[in-house]
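re the bet — no i am not wrong, look at it urself. input seq straight from the record:
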Amino acid sequence: QLQVAESGGGLVQPGGSLRLSCTVSGVTTDYYAVGWFRQAPGKEREGVSCISSDDGSAVYADSVKGRFTISTDNAKNTVYLQMDSLKPEDTGVYYCAANSILYGRLLASLYDYWGHGIQVTVSS
């Protein structure tokens, strides 16, 4: 039974940076996948990035490529999402999700365990 918790959100001006953290507890396998999703006001939830703990392979949405970086610290069961050059359109509630699967994909249905979400606001 996995538990997921996000931290690190907040308010930042356009062009600024934030780092989100996602801690996954209850891992009983040697591998798991973690995905970040977000939901902006008036929009549907979308995948942002995901990573596989096994080999560190990562996937990014086109909208964040070159600006966001996902990484993992397996010793701490923590995944980070470094967000640079933030834009107002990055505003939304960010959710971390995890599952005991080998490879991550930006498909919400693949993830069984979700955090409660954390607000990221990019505004001048």
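see?? The chain has a mean pLDDT of 94. told u. also The chain has no helices and eleven strands. so pay up
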